[in-house]
Amino acid sequence: EDVKGATCQPAGPALSFQQFSPGVYTHLGKIAEPDRSNKGDVSNIAFIIGETSVAVIDSGSAAWMGESIWRAVRAETPLPISHVILTHMHPDHVFGANVLAKSGAQVVGHHALDRALAERRENYLESFANLIGPAALIGTGSAPVDVVVEQSLTLDLGGRTLRLQAWPLAHTGTDLTVLDETSGILFAGDLVFDRHSPALDGSLLGWQQVLADLGQLSAPQVMPGHGGPLLDWPEGGEALRDYLDVLARDTRAAIAKGQRIGNAVKTIAASQADNW
Prior knowledge:
A seven-stranded mixed sheet has the order 1-2-3-4-5-6-7. It has a six-stranded mixed sheet with strand order 8-9-10-11-12-13, covered by helices on one side. Strand 3 and strand 4 form a beta hairpin. Helix content is 29%, strand content 23%. Helix 5 (204-214) runs antiparallel to helix 6 (238-257). The longest helix is centred in the middle third of the chain and has 20 residues, at 113-132. The protein is built from seven helices and 13 strands. It is of the alpha/beta class. The chain has helices spanning 63-76, 91-94, 97-102, 113-132, 204-214, 238-257, 261-264; strands spanning 18-21, 24-27, 45-49, 54-57, 81-85, 106-110, 147-149, 152-156, 161-166, 176-180, 185-193, 221-226, 231-232.
């Protein structure tokens, strides 16, 4: 039936995902900084299909990515997206969540995530407008956390259980991991980097400890926040462990020499430059 004034518009694209295990789909973000050519598509994203619902892990840099994730899920299953799990506060992981929340998903995050985003949201949006362009940010905003993870939490997708763990100050103060018990894959967010230069927005010593604790988990594979998209575990964390060890050692040496920070940053971890 014709509707007066109605027009047809092409649907937007679906983000590309690859199935690595039954019901587990991952998207490999560009190994790059966000810019106008990649429109912020620089971090890894996943979705997991259970018998009754779907969980999305991280949501990209902008509303357009949340929409593209939704289309990718719809191409694989009609099941509802019940949860969008945010692994930490950084904008390339959280700014697509608002779209998924409007579609009915509950936003799940670390207990410190809401406050961290409230303090940084405007700066993040301003920065990303400069990096990827204001057109790529149309409709973008953060979504409040509906399900808070204080320490650990289990989500049931119907015959499929996800185990969530909130971590102490490490890469950031809002780090959260997801373990899919069916596949055994650990979704580590930016607690694990591969190829992309690691960013530190928390505690170096804390990150080293959390990485050691993650290495004790019985997970055969990990999806890092950048790179991969899947790495053998714990072997896949060796490069990051080496980088953090060098960073700590060089920093201690610079302090012992009484170097000014402006000079020290030019040499600290320089030996690692070709590895990332």
